[in-house]
Amino acid sequence: MKKISFLILTVCLGMIFNQNTRGEDSLTRDIELLKNGDDETREDSARRLGDYREKEAVDALCEALHDTNEDVVEEALASLGRIGNSDAVEKIVPVLSHDDIGIRRSAVRALKKIGDPRALPALEKMLDENKNPFIERPIEAAIESLKAAQNAGN
């Protein structure tokens, strides 16, 4: 019985340590694929990077906001929103003026999820300039959410 318990413990510890190593390798691999993969690979990598909380993932996703493929940019924005790191706010705000309305909407959603009130002036300006319901309602929701977060912090 002791041998079986020891074997189970050894296997479990091996899985834990192997998983941690694999996680670091996966992060590095996904960052590399985000930079150098084909369109679909970059999009998948941007999606997977949203599962990491490391600064390297946030930095790589912020760089991907300048990608030529709109799907990659949208996935990067969604991932930045899931991560919720307020360091990304300054990189996302310029995306609010992107040519593509879907990307602008994704940027609004990411800023709402991050919840940093520093995005309020840019969102309020955007609301004044946009009367399209496709984007107007998400902007209003983001502003309301960020103001609530700001008031809760005071």
Structure description:
This protein is mainly α and 154 residues long. The protein has one domain (2-153): Leucine-rich Repeat Variant. The chain is 77% helix and 0% strand. It contains 8 helices and no strands. The chain has helices at 2-36, 39-49, 55-63, 70-83, 89-92, 101-114, 120-129, 133-153. The N and C termini lie far apart (59 Å).
Task: Give the overall silhouette.
Answer: globular
**Secondary-structure element pattern, one letter each:** HHHHHHHH
Separation, N- and C-terminal Cα atoms: 59 Å
The count of DSSP E runs of length 2 or more, i.e. the number of strands, is 0
Mean pLDDT: 89
**CATH hierarchy, class:** Mainly Alpha
Low-confidence stretches: 17-22
CATH superfamily: Leucine-rich Repeat Variant
Number of H- or I-type helical stretches: 8
Rounded radius of gyration (Å): 19 Å
User: How many domain units?
Assistant: 1
Secondary structure: helix percent:
over 70%
Structural class: mainly alpha
**Relative strand content:** under 5%
Largest sheet: none
CATH topology: Leucine-rich Repeat Variant
CATH architecture: Alpha Horseshoe
Question: What attributes characterize this protein structure?
Answer:
single chain; 154 residues; mainly alpha; Leucine-rich Repeat Variant; 8 helices; 0% strand
Secondary-structure blueprint of this entry?
Elements: H1 2-36, H2 39-49, H3 55-63, H4 70-83, H5 89-92, H6 101-114, H7 120-129, H8 133-153
Helix pairs in contact: 1-2, 1-3, 2-4, 4-6, 6-8, 7-8
Produce a short descriptive summary.
By secondary structure, the chain is mainly alpha-helical. The protein has helices spanning 2-36, 39-49, 55-63, 70-83, 89-92, 101-114, 120-129, 133-153. It is globular.
